[in-house]
User: What shape does this take?
Amino acid sequence: MNTFIAKKIRKLSISAFLFLFSSVFLAAEAAETNSSADNIKVAEESQATVEQTKSAETDTDISISNSSAKSSEKEKSMVCIPSVDKYDWIQLNTDEWLKGEIKGMYKDSLEFDSKNLGLLTIDWTDVKFLRSHRVDNVNIDGVGATSGVLEVTDNVLRLTNDYEDNTYDRSKLISFTTGGNKERDLWAIKLVLSLGIRQGNTDQIDYTSTLNVERRGSTTRFLMDYIGNISKTNSGDGSLVDTINNHRVNASIDYYKTRNFFYTPAFAEFYSDTFQNIDLRTTVGAGLGYTVFDDARTELSFAGGPAYVKTDFVSVAPGQNSSETTPAAVLKTKYHLEVTKTLDFAAKYNIQVGNKASGGYTHHIILTVDSEIIGALDFNTSFIWDRTSNPTEAADGTTPIPNDFSLTFGISYTY
Assistant: This one.
């Protein structure tokens, strides 16, 4: 019995010693971490190792059977975060850790590049902890654009640079990009090509191309979309003549003032369709926008404002003007849904209202379904509807039909 008591005392002494040693060790680590925060410099500087410790203790019930006893003792375990001097780290709300390179967070979606998993798009609400190892360009609600080394926890955003160390409520973070990113990392490009060839009794070539370009900064976004359709068929004498020939370019610059609200200092559209008797229609304007919701799977936004429109016609009836100008109102709607990991649906609806001589009410609708083939290659199906409510009569007396519909199939590549 004395031997059992002696063993019990020794085990309690060891447990007390381990508990005291762990407390001293953790206090030293905390002091070292706080000290290193004051020495953070510009991008690419090495930083102190961040460690997170977690303790758990369990009590073991004592049972005595046949003169033997099982002792109870406190157990502690420590979980360490590896060094962040070369990598960024995030922890998901499932307590899983990811190591790699942060590309940025934009409209509640975090882009994270993992060596093994590739480029990931993660819902911002799924990120429990984040720490970057480089200086980031950050947009904070009520503060504006700033920069520093970023650390985010459940509720707190900490931004450190060589002249300040500030904390903010996490909900104030609008967006950020990693300062160490190369310029090409800020761009997203999608190219769609569709080609159809017929030979025999009918010789015909159909060509459709779509290009979407986006540059995302911490506070700004640049968008440019192009779509072109060309169709040529045999004229009977061996030559090919156009039966479809239209091109449309949209471009805009957006500045995000808050998480959802943005204003557009300038947007423009250039449209040409010889079979709609439009040699070139130029639209220039400015406006406001609002993102209703945008997460890793779904996006819905509205934008619009006043504009100036100038339309040059291919030909006009005698006595009519060869060009028209008008003030106009423009409304744009954008919707995107990730149906599954391999299937996406997108819709764009642009409306423009001007005077009757310039075409009156016009709209441009694109409905797109992308199905992944492999990697960055998708099979693309698009339905396009263009409408000009008041087409202008041509010199030969013909008036174009108001509606044009097309259905295209092609292959898309996303960078």
In short: The chain has three domains: 1-37, 40-54+77-181, 185-414. The first strand starts at residue 64 and ends at 65. The two ends are 75 Å apart (CA to CA).
